[in-house]
Amino acid sequence: MAAVVVLLLIDFKNPLLAFMAMVPLIAGTAWMAGLTKLAGMKLNFNNVIALPLIIGIGIDDGVHLIHRYRVEGGGGVRTIFANTGKAILLTSLTTMIGFGSLIFMTHRGMASMGTVLTIGIGSCFITTLLFLAPAFGIARGGLSRGKGEAERTEPSRR
After folding, report:
1. What b/e sequence results for 42-75 when a residue is b if at least 16 CB atoms lie within 10 Å of its CB, and e otherwise?
2. Is residue 14 part of a domain?
3. Of the four listed, 20, 101, 109, 155, which is most buried by Cβ atoms within 10 Å?
4. Which of 12, 117, 128 has its CA nearest to residue 59?
5. Domain tally, the chain
6. How many CB atoms lie within 10 A of CB 98?
7. Closest CA to 60 of 135, 136, 120, 134
8. Predicted confidence band at 144 (pLDDT cuts at 50, 70, 90)?
9. Is position 123 within any domain?
10. 52 lies in some domain
11. Residues 6+ away with beta carbon under 8 Å from 115
12. What region, left, alpha or beta, does residue 36 occupy, with left being phi > 0 and alpha being psi -120 to 50 degrees?
């Protein structure tokens, strides 16, 4: 997790953007923990193996949306979710289907890992939508804008 934080800080060069990319992962992981607890699942060796996979896959959605936000600027929230939102939906669903197929294995540990991965990736995707969409709306003027936004809003100085 520390390596992910360092890479986000290097990539975004802005602690606020790095934090925004981490929020869906943190919240999604918390939801995953709660849902697995409600389902009566216990932590086992295979579930522990699933956690780094969830961290790696769960951070992708937030990172892609933050990068698109920087390109589109604050005014393009609908465009961000119409285009990049479709892409992260498809990647999340296909990954959930792939790991979800493990649920049908006869080995209980592998089936448990498939369940945790499916719940974890789904939780990270849903929290990406629930947290980043409002955050983009709130932060329209507070974050660094992409070139497209700057060109649309600033008058020419010639």
Report:
1. eeeebbeebbebbbebbbbbbbbbbbbbbebbbe
2. no
3. 20
4. 128
5. 1
6. 13
7. 120
8. very low
9. yes
10. yes
11. 36, 39, 41, 102, 103
12. alpha
